[in-house]
Amino acid sequence: MEPEQIREGYLVKKGTVLNSWKVVWVVLSEDGLEFYKKKTDRSPKGMIPLNGATLMCPCQDFSKRMLVFKVSSAKKQDHFFQASHLEDREFWVKDIKRAINCLNGGKKFARKSTRKSIKLPETVNLSQLYTQMRDQETGIKELKLEKENKIFNYCFTGNSVIDWLIYNEKVRNRQEGLMLATGLLTEGFLQAAGDISKEGAEGTAESSLLDQSDAFYYFADSGFFCEGYSSDEDAIVKEQFRGNIIKQGCLVKQGHRRKNWKVRKFVLRDDPAYLHYYDPTKGDEDPLGSVHLRGSVVTAVEHIPEAKKYDIEGNLFEIITSDEKHYFLQAASTEERKEWINSIQIVAKSGK
Fold this sequence. Notes:
Largest sheet: 7 strands, antiparallel
Order of helices and strands: EEEEEEEHHEEHHEHEEHEEEEEEEH
Helix content: 10-25%
Mean pLDDT: 85
Distance between the termini: 53 Å
Structural class: alpha+beta
């Protein structure tokens, strides 16, 4: 009997011989993790048996890559994968951990929360807590803070995190707040900004998040950036990143010049309405380009003549901007295409 397929999608994988990072299509089954050079390939490029394997997340081997997790096979071979965003990493890690535990226990795979990486009560849901903290009305307020001739945009202080947890009755006191906030930092939901908070995160103390007004942090999915100064031109460009993140993930995009197709990480923001795209193999945060969505039209398309020679078929859609630029994209599934189209349509109508 063929093993049951649990999850599939795009991840970035570090080469085992060369140190380069490349996008691969990954399929998780009950007994292994297969990765393909392209989604349409019939044979995998490699396979990692999960029997006796271990998983490490977060993996801090790469300072500029915050969304990496490591799968080590029973033969002590390390495989590094990078997700496109925090929620995506959470889904992969939970399912891989569950598959490993089921194999080791001789049980059938069934989805269940298996978070063991931090010592928190079973009732604590860090993903849900993170969503509440990000709420524009009732969450932690993102500020522009200045320190040592630097401006930290879209961040907040360590003591404000503890204050919020206590005020919203998530914890009883500051000590409990530190434990919970450290869990958020360890799992990658919060990131350290500035020397003081980074030293705390890298230190050996039990609480790596600092309950201090001079320790700065930011949300992993925020528009955070640090600058020494800002020209008028810089301010105009950075205004694009002010909006809330509505949706993000990997899509295949057609290039405008060569008409070739490559996997890109996309981040959809509202107010202002922008779709930024990135090279998912890079560790930096600078986008390759952006699409201003105000007044755009997005529709599903069934066929693009130039796409066939690249084995690009199905789940295609097109964005036509207000200045008549055409962008052709491919989602991984019919459902995912529907979600992207609906989200872009809403942002195009409501965002400025």
